[in-house]
Amino acid sequence: MSAHGDVDLGHTVAGWTGTAIAFVGLSVLALAVVTVSLPLAVMGAAVGAFAGLTTWLLHLAGWGKPTGPRPASEWPWRVRDRAARQGHPDCLGCRMAGRRTSAATAPAPSGTTTSPAPAAVAP
């Protein structure tokens, strides 16, 4: 149990890396405001965009977290998410990458068969 209680805070490699890069970008933007420098502002914004892209790519590689709570065994930040390759249900980042869009479109588990509903027969 942590100081924050028994909750999944979502600390992940993707989250920490993206936050660190974004902090650098915001620091450059702050310097741009103080020095009134347009080139520094553009560079800070570019670093911020790079932070978002890096976080998204790490999420897709399995170093992020799916939406919602995870099992307690997956809470440590160095645990890789093995389900990321197929995509997370209802995850915007996974949909943007062309992965599964929702739980309703998830493929059926292997070994199970689904049969279509019987068609209505006209009398």
Characterise the protein shown here.
- It is a single chain.
- The chain is mainly α and 123 residues long.
- 44% of the residues lie in helices and 0% in strands.
- It contains three helices and no strands.
- It has helices at residues 13-35, 38-63, 92-96.
- It is elongated, with a radius of gyration of 21 Å.
The number of E-state strands comes to 0
Count of DSSP helices? 3
Ends apart, CA distance between termini: 65 Å
Largest sheet: none
Mean pLDDT: 77
Q: Which percent range fits the helix content?
A: 40-55%
Mass-distribution shape:
elongated
Descriptive terms for the model:
single chain, elongated, 0% strand, mainly alpha, 123 residues
Write the layout of secondary structure elements.
Elements: H1 13-35, H2 38-63, H3 92-96
Helix pairs in contact: 1-2
Short structural summary:
The chain is mostly helical and 123 residues long. It has helices spanning 13-35, 38-63, 92-96.
